[in-house]
Design goal:
Layout: H1 11-22, E1 29-32, H2 40-53, E2 58-61, H3 64-67, H4 75-87, H5 102-121, E3 129-138, E4 144-152, H6 155-162, H7 167-184, E5 188-196, H8 204-209
Parallel strand pairs: 1-2, 4-5
Antiparallel strand pairs: 3-4
Length: 216
């Protein structure tokens, strides 16, 4: 959740998400981003307001943008990663340790795309962005083909992600593709589309479709 002043527009969406999280047994971490945008006097009240949404959750304050490229400021992100790892249950070994599964690559593809949106666009369109992998195919040549939709809730965000003559989307795709090729050890073809779905975060059907809601 984003705690900067300009992010007040997302409080309604945050409340809706928090309500759904209350009903799940999954451990929850409340990560308050953009605290560097707040006046010092507002940090505590804003923090308490968000903690009231998820009083049972672990919580942390950090600034993803400030920490980018600044080791002295990156500890907040490192601590968040540590908290996430600590909360993850150890699952059974269904596959050999050196085997990369299709489902794992699909999940990582979505994460890599989201990561590049974060790194390249920072706070412009992060809020209200989701990625859905449409197709994952291993070709006879040994290459991998992946297609994905990037969903945003505003047409202006779609234009930002695509960029002038599609250049921004190409850069996002190229960087995510390089990460995937390093992961799977072969050539990856990655196709991306950007689609507008207004208020998808308040739509139970869309949350389930994107994997963000509890499946019955």
């Amino acid at each position: 959740m984003e705690s900067g002043e300009q992010c007040g527009r997302g409080v309604t969406g945050d409340r809706a998400i928090a309500k759904r999280l209350h009903a799940t047994p999954t451990p929850t971490i409340l990560a308050l981003n953009k605290v560097d945008l707040l006046p010092a006097a507002d940090v505590l009240p804003r923090t308490e307001a968000y903690r009231a949404l998820l009083p049972e959750a672990a919580w942390i304050l950090f600034s993803a943008q400030k920490g980018h490229g600044e080791p002295e400021a990156a500890s907040g992100r490192d601590e968040l990663l540590t908290m996430i790892v600590a909360a993850l249950p150890e699952g059974p070994h269904y596959y050999p340790e050196d085997q990369v599964t299709d489902s794992y690559v699909r999940d990582m593809a979505a994460e890599f795309i989201r990561e590049q949106i974060m790194l390249q666009l920072r706070d412009e369109v992060l809020y209200g962005t989701a990625v859905q992998i449409l197709e994952f195919k291993e070709r006879d040549s040994g290459d991998v083909y992946i297609s994905a939709n990037i969903f945003v809730d505003r047409d202006t965000h779609k234009r930002i992600i695509i960029g002038k003559k599609g250049q921004q989307l190409k850069e996002i795709g190229a960087a995510a593709r390089a990460q995937l090729e390093e992961l799977v050890g072969c050539k990856v073809f990655l196709e991306l589309w950007v689609k507008v779905e207004p208020k998808w975060r308040q739509n139970e059907k869309w949350l389930k479709r994107l994997g963000y809601a509890r499946q019955e």
